[in-house]
Design goal:
mainly beta; Pectate Lyase C-like; 4-stranded parallel beta sheet; disordered N terminus; disordered C terminus
Length: 476
């Protein structure tokens, strides 16, 4: 990139984030190499007859290997080693206390025959398949009710060969919802790291009803026009860390979910304590980070930091609708850089898409305490498109230190707001909406999630001109 922040900006950010670490300390993101490398028992997939020629179907080999390794689950766990090669397979189940290791040059290939992806019941918080009524295909790598599972390696690859699924979807030839690459349900203590994911039929990585999840050092790729190939979708899950990932797909890079309309309301399993750090990527159809639209179980305590998005449709988006119920609250977004993004920040209160006709249109979501801090963008189409719900105002939406350089030839207003209320300070272009007050400190700092006494002390002594100088960037 050709732009760098001046030292004054670095010092300012340092002052602003004096209290950050005490906030994020509740999220346990670190893990040791011993959690990945040390398993007292190890076997290679070749010991069970697998052939890595990209043609031989190895589903039975994976199933048999995991059945054998399950006998070591109470003896320190086990490691399934996948060496270099092209290992074609259908869906298989993982076990607890397992490391699935893909060595350098190893690729697990998803079968292009739908019969090798079994059909299973829909998630109880969705009530049906996400794109079709009824059941859904199971993910390529699947597990439920597991503990201590690691999927990692030396940058091995998991390739869903999803193009045939995308064609079936576009042509209306599917009977069931498409499968993910990895789905883990009702599980705890999960690590997915140091891998490349390619061409998922549907969402790539889907931890649902899980807790204590680390997703780190991944490359996730799919064509920009591939349908619904979300990168990582934590769903009704708690204590999730997504860090150091590069994602280019045909949908949201990360989408936080928690169930769909009346089914999500009834299941009542929120997503909370989710940390997203150092994410870089591109999506020309969707968002870098999305919350929703399936958020009926509630979403809270979300920390997004160091997002870098290029040549994309939307930076950060919250999606909901009458009938969703639930809530999105206590979200803190900071240190964002956007380049050539059509809509930097977007709230959509009438997203639509309901599982059936039984949803309650009076079940309105609560959207509040969303803070955007230290956001910079250049070549932006629209700075903010903020649309709440009439009679259900989104409130305590806060912007501090936000500079979004809108394209000179843009004929659209930089900000558009309806049914949204909040506060702004040091925002350029200024938010020209009557529902936003142009000050946060000191009287409204308690209304803005994630701000601390350090923010208050720094900001109370900083004039607008001093702030603007601190944000100048230099060409190199």
């Amino acid at each position: 990139m050709k732009r760098f922040f001046l030292l004054s900006y670095v010092l300012l950010v340092h002052a602003f984030y004096g209290a950050w670490f005490s906030v994020e300390g509740i999220l346990h993101c670190e893990y040791s190499n011993s959690m990945i490398l040390h398993r007292p028992h190890s076997v290679s997939i070749t010991e069970f007859g697998a052939v890595g020629d990209g043609v031989t179907l190895n589903t039975k080999a994976f199933q048999n290997a995991l059945f054998y390794l399950n006998s070591f689950s109470d003896k320190g766990g086990a490691k399934l080693f996948v060496p270099a090669g092209q290992w074609l397979t259908g869906s298989f189940d993982l076990i607890s206390h397992l490391t699935l290791w893909l060595d350098k040059g190893a690729t697990i290939l998803g079968s292009t025959s739908s019969e090798n992806w079994p059909v299973v019941d829909p998630l109880p918080s969705y009530g049906r398949g996400r794109e079709l009524p009824g059941r859904r295909h199971r993910s390529l790598i699947y597990g439920q009710n597991l503990t201590d599972v690691v999927i990692t390696g030396e940058n091995g690859t998991i390739d869903g060969q999803g193009s045939i699924w995308w064609d079936w979807f576009r042509n209306g030839e599917l009977n069931y919802t498409r499968p993910h690459l990895v789905e883990l349900m009702n599980s705890t203590g999960l690590i997915i790291s140091n891998l490349t994911f390619l061409n998922s039929p549907f969402w790539n990585i889907h931890p649902v009803y899980c807790r204590d999840v680390v997703v780190k050092n991944l490359i996730i790729l799919a064509p920009l026009d591939s349908p619904n190939t979300d990168g990582v979708d934590p769903d009704s899950s708690t204590n999730v860390c997504i860090e150091d990932c590069y994602i280019v797909t045909g949908d949201d890079l990360v989408s936080i979910k928690s169930g769909w309309d009346e089914y999500g309301i009834s299941y009542a399993r929120p997503s909370s304590k989710i940390k997203i750090n150092r994410l870089t990527g591109q999506t020309t159809s969707s968002s870098g980070i999305a919350i929703g639209s399936e958020m009926s179980g509630g979403v809270s305590d979300i920390y997004i930091k160091d997002l870098h998005l290029l040549n994309s449709s939307t930076g950060i988006r919250i999606k909901t609708s009458p009938g969703r119920g639930g809530y999105v609250r206590k979200v803190h977004v900071s240190n964002v850089k956007l380049v050539n993004v059509k809509k930097a920040i977007r709230f959509t209160g009438k997203y639509g898409e309901h599982p059936d006709e039984d949803f309650d249109p009076k079940a309105l979501p609560s959207i509040e305490k969303i803070t955007f801090e230290n956001v910079y963008g250049e070549d932006i189409g629209v700075a903010g498109l903020l649309e709440g719900i009439e009679g259900d105002e989104f409130k305590n939406i806060c912007f501090i230190n936000v500079t979004l350089r809108v394209k000179k030839n843009s004929k659209k207003a930089p900000w558009k707001c309806s049914n949204v209320r909040g506060y702004s300070q040091w925002v350029w272009p200024e938010i020209s909406c009557n529902s936003f007050e142009e000050s946060i400190f000191p009287e409204h700092s308690s209304d803005c999630f994630g701000l601390s006494e350090n923010n208050l002390e720094t900001s109370s002594g900083l004039s607008r001109s001093q702030w603007f100088l601190s944000w100048q960037v230099t060409e190199v």
